[in-house]
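Tutorial sheet, problem 5. The two components below are modelled jointly, 946 residues in total.
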Amino acid sequence: MGIAISMTVNGAAVSAEIDPRTLLVDFLRVNLGLTGTHVGCDTAQCGACTIHLDGRAVKSCNVLALQANGARVTTIEGLAGSGELHPMQAAFKECHGLQCGFCTPGMVMSAIDLVQRHPNADEATIRAQLEGNLCRCTGYHNIVKAVQQGAAAMSR
Amino acid sequence: MGANESGYIGQSLRRKEDRRFLTGAGQYTDDVTLPHQTHAYFLRSPHAHARIRSIDTSKAAKAPGVVAIYTGADLEGVGGLPCGWLITSVDGTPMKEPPHPVLAKGKVRHVGDQVALVVAETRIQAKDAAELIEVDYDVLPAVTHPVDALAPGAPQIHDEAPGNHCYTWALGDKAAVDAAFAKAAHVTKLDLVNNRLIPNAIEPRAAVASHSASDDSYTLYVTSQNPHVERLLMAAFVLGLPEHKLRVIAPDVGGGFGSKIYLYAEETALVWASKRVGRPIKWVAERSESFLTDAHGRDHVTHAELALDKDGKFLAMRVNTTAAMGAYLSTFASCIPTILYATLLAGQYTTPAIHCEVKAAFTNTAPVDAYRGAGRPEATYVVERIVRQAGVEMGIAQDEIRRRNFIRSFPYQTPVALTYDTGNYDATLDGANELADVKGFAARKAEAAKRGKLRGLGYSSYIEACGLAPSNIAGALGARAGLFEAGQVRVNPTGSVTVFTGSHSHGQGHETTFAQIVATRLGIPVDNVDVVHGDTGRIAFGMGTYGSRSLAVGGTAIVKALDKIVGKGKKIAAHLLEAAESDIEFADGKFTVAGTDRSKTFGEIALTAYVPHNYPLDKLEPGLDETAFYDPTNFTYPAGTHICEVEIDPDTGVVQVVKFSACDDFGNIVNPMIVEGQVHGGLTQGIGQALLEGCIYDRESGQLLTGSYMDYAMPRADDVPSYQVSTRVTPCTVNPLGTKGCGEAGAIGSPPALINAVLDALAPAGVTKLDMPATPHRVWQAIQSAKAAS
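Model answer (structure tokens):
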């Protein structure tokens, strides 16, 4: 029943034999132990599992690991280089854009993708673009501020 | 020491916990993996109400990877899940407490009721095997609405609760209320529904249980807001385990909002099964299970009447509420629509007489329990809706009718049992008026009208009782537990400090706020303080986090422990400095002989306590590690005014919250950034309730119609505005920190502010009645009905 896959995750080559039903998020969490990517729902609505697949933000609960065969995956663990937070991570901390932290990895991955597509996004655009990521703690107020600050830092 | 004499207090320190959350290094329950771990899946009832004729697990037991399958029949000797609060009916009888089995016995009573536990090598295998279990159900008629449940002839859910009646409870002086209504110049009447909500912490509930055969002990990792309470209830009341043989760890927890206070069946079954299986077992709820089985919130149907004199002074209020309990009594279900509801009906006002009667009904739904605010949002919704309507009916402006009735003399004894210690309601109303630019509203409304849009402004002046709770008062009201908190301050030999708190953080930022208090009091750098929470194996005791109590009660316990540390430090310093203990002063991290420059630093005292070579060993124990328990003498009373401004498109019924302003009094504030974040989150949950959210069960079949994020409308980033928030401070007189609590205020104040704004906007269209949530469909229908009626 196993099927062989291989991909690049956070810059490292990985390969494994998996049950073909395995979701990408389970492959990352269970097979690779990258538990920073979270599962918050079962309908691809909450966005807690958002990762970058070949540079695009996707919900990894809605992708089979098999579909990522040969792809380049970045998770929250792959963002901070040598101890330095990514500018978006730093902005979330500075703006108090997180409370319980559960939606945070997905939110940060979405935010980076958002800024790459809309470098000069205004508040309305940021709010509309974050529609696919639920946060129950912050009321989004400080997340929006963090994305604005993170965008400015990323452009420097 | 920090920048000023109050140290770190009042500073928006960035959070110590953030780095791990931002780098994916948080450790949530689902991130825990134990050697030889198995996986659990619960087979759940597809029916709202059914008798179980038989369960056949034989096929499932042979499925690949299956380790064990258990049903209710296997749990001989296991008790039911207990309810922690006894409510006594007006006729003197105790509430009805039917059994709440860990796995269904004989009957299922709501969709999602757990029927069997399947343990397998993988989660997929457990789920596959569950599909092979054959359950023969005799489906019974169901009742999901609390009013329907109490009607004659309703389906009978429990034999022990005839007519589905749990209790009829009352508070207040009925005769005084009747007399006041008899002489009233004006009476305002209102029928309200407080919509049922599903909490939806983004982390689903989860548990990992293991048993150690070598010492017959258990360890449970669980998504809990209060691990010690979880341990006490599970060990003593359900499984009959010695408490010291069960360690409960609530690691990083991804939001709670009340839904993770309770002892649930799933983790209880896992602990029980872990010994039988002889291997660790992990269970993680799928979101669909969260919708079906997390304790829900609210679900009230209320009729309220307010009596006023000719000047708009409130004379009396009369409230009748029917509240749903769900299929079983959850841990604190019974006290929410009673003790935490009727006691808040005075609001910020001098209403001299209030009477409230509450009927609680069992329904074929998930249990209902505390959800952010817990009873207080329901009370505030009643008060602030009827106050608005009274103002409209009597032609008195919304801020004016409130001011005419504000309490201004403290302490103030309400007619519904509480004594408010302090407050300044004019100050928060003024503050909110400023933030909301109320003066400019008329112009904004006129401008909107030119675009064909309806603008409205809504007020809500709320109060809440937080800092739960004086144990003796709670006990007299039916609490079956103490409501104190414990804190331990361990000074390490080199002068760094580890704080152990019985309070739990699942987003509130205890690791930062509590460290700010400790560092300030001891005069040491905040980085030298670590805060530990969420582990019965490391922390003395705790009652956990709910009711905005963490800082007011948990923080005070830490302060009490710090007082002991400083007291002992003075004794050590007196010895070292050869001075009288009474001459030693402690400030800025130094123990000084008063009036001299002779002193010892905090670090020197810490080292001496652990290296006691020159030490009064005959009089004083070595070490510097103190524990304190704190039981508050009163509740705390956060209060404020929220003003919502909406714009409505009459053609579509779409309501846009264009501005939301909140001015709150939380007493003294330790970390303003964290407090503002709590307000933002609370406001969004309240706006969610008023605008979007509503749990709907099919009234015939009892099926949950809003069982996913596709069907249950959660507030998203583009549903809410950026907020205007400010604070006014009257320090709480109950605790030494002067703090009141801020976690629930947003969710309490905002729903009536929003609905009042919508009603204000729709007044020109002739709409006078609207229930939450104000969805486009509902608003549009209200506009059409008003048109048809005129």
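Marking note: The mean pLDDT of chain B is 97. Full credit if you identified this.
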